[in-house]
Amino acid sequence: MRIRSDFNDDWLFEGRDRVRLPHTAVELPFSYFDEGSYQRRFTYERSITPEPAWAGREVCLVFDGAMANAVVRLNGEVVATHPDGYTPFIARLTDGLKPGVNHLTVVVDGTENPAIPPFGHVIDYLTYAGLYRECWLEVRAPISIERVKIETPEVLSPTRRLLARVMLDNPQGRTLTGKVTARLRDPGGHVIAQAEAAVTRAEVRIEMTGLDVRLWSPESPALYTLDLVLEAPGGRDNLSQSFGFREVSFTAAGFALNGKPIKLRGLNRHQSFPYAGYALGRAAQIRDAEILKHELRVNMVRTSHYPQSTDFLDACDRLGLLVFEEIPGWQHIGDRAWQDASVENLRAMITRDWNHPSIVIWGVRINESQDNHDFYARTNALAHELDSTRPTGGVRYITDSELLEDVYTMNDFILGNEEQGGNRPRTPLRPQMEVTGLDHAVPYMITEFGGHMYPTKSWDQEQRQAEHVTRHLEVLNAMYGDPQIAGAIGWCAFDYNTHKDFGSGDRICHHGVMDMFREPKFAAYVYASQSDPAEGVILKPVTFWARGERNIGGVLPLIILTNCDEVELRYGSHPPKRVGPDRERYPHLPHPPVILDQRHFSKDELGLWGMTWEHAEVTGYVNGQAVARLRFAADPVATTLQVTPDATEIGAHDAVRIMVRALDQVGNKLPFFPEPVSITVTGAGRRIGPGFVPLRAGSTGFWVQAQGRGDITVTVTSDRLGAQVLQLKAE
User: Fold this and answer.
1) In contact, 510 and 503? CB cutoff 8 Å
2) pLDDT tens digits along 313-326
3) Which of 134, 368, 405, 614 is catalytic?
4) What pLDDT sits at residue 418?
5) By three-state DSSP, how is residue 310 classified?
6) C-alpha span between 129 and 89 (Å, rounded)
7) How far apart are CA 496 and CA 503, in angstroms?
8) What does the alpha-carbon distance between residue 252 and residue 249 come to, in Å, rounded to a whole number?
9) Which of 27, 448, 474, 519 is catalytic?
10) Catalytic: 549?
């Protein structure tokens, strides 16, 4: 049977440092760095010694990702090359291994090579460099299972069926005989069906019918497993693949999953992190999916602008988070050879990810590129050939663009264009046919809005934060109110590092509804508040509660992002004000915000400039019952240093995020507390990033990377607020 083992330890980087994968070639500062520092070649080396049990078997390394243009040598001979930085590749070692110690070398090149997508012109994100995903050693039978594609047609019929295409790898050209046995396991691990098929060619087809199964959905992400065993000359091989039974549909009337209409409310995600770039492993990838699903409470994420970690996609499968996955690129289309490479990127992406039930649409167009009929006819044809179960989309920002895809996917940045000299009134989204130039409705989805039209830092003035919130509210309201729009995916979930050509000059695009440490800005609660209160009550006033933070002063209009039925404000000794959601301004949102303004107060109730500022209390009600309560201090004082890890028990090779916040006497974060903290990590772990950092908007974050099993001690110290000590355990 197949042996798959971790091959991430003990790589020699640049001839000097012993490192474990995932690894970033250059650990960047938080901001104001030279992005050219990683744009060169880097070398990784490792030894490998064959074991007697490998005799007569295939031996290979599987690299989940290398940035970029990787060349793998075994004892000086090239055994693999892979230009694409985002998809996996295999280095076959079988023929080159000799008895005793063998020498492996992997060279990656962080140069923005114009021959390789997404490069060729400027791009608004960093690609970093290094062996930034995991590597695995696989020992297989001479004939093995290369991959399987599982399809679940007619899931809405009373009984379901499964079709599996099992593709074999036969590098030695042996005669194909034998059989493939397939067992289907339900989410509880019980075998519910079995089938087998003879091996006569390199692709074996298996069908199972009459299946009594649950459908995969965001509410109930039921995952099944197909266990495959190949018996062929030279030995047995095995492969297990998870998947879900579900059906996807985009029409002019919107999106449906398993025949049920769903409005898609999502955010875009870059896979980068502070300091480590792309090189945070499985636990961090899973955590991002959890944040999107449970904290931001979106039902869709777009993997902008490239295929992302399978650990992230696996988590989306388990959590029920829908995915729009697209090929690498940003605006630029290169020459014919560049386009050929992009077509191969598409092939690699689809064949890697076609069994993920979370993925509901393939992005087959370079993000925001101009029309190119021949190129995009090729990408659409290939996507349909490889996978007929999902539609294609092509993200553009130009209007009247040629529609070759199944879904017209549009980055609509009309909101804010009036500030650039436009002559139309404030407009959240344009009508579909104004964008497409067609005389009829087609499947249509908004794939970006906001972002660079109104970049907002987590420490920006409250009034700007309120406008940031308002813009996200307006677009989501317009989306929910237009039956021709399948959904809208905001730009973006998390702030991210970028080139000098973009962002605020600090090498950061402050476009996210969360900062780079995944700490929410107020706009994050626009998305979370659209969820059912049964998922958790959201009650977030868009205020720092200070008399003079806004222009002129005061806190009105006060937007309260909530999924409650009513909200009550108590201010000092004044009579309480209980107000319901503003359905007049936001009639289409599932949960409009509560907005308190001059209509609800007399002139003296919230005080004039120069009068005493008072404490406040905000209470949320559902079905007449108080379900959440917040207090605001009129005189906030730095009181507590809060240090919160995502987990206290982690895997022996996992990275865990730890958030640090300065809080006032009632537990609210102090948005303008800038004082630094020192961070030390001892034991079986190391700190990623610097050990002496400022708080930004009252908080900062960092990751601790476990280095084997054992105890980890984390100490965070503030000169004013004292020290907090965390005990973590890596197992």
Assistant:
1) yes
2) 999 999 999 999 99
3) 368
4) 65
5) helix
6) 16
7) 9
8) 10
9) 448
10) no
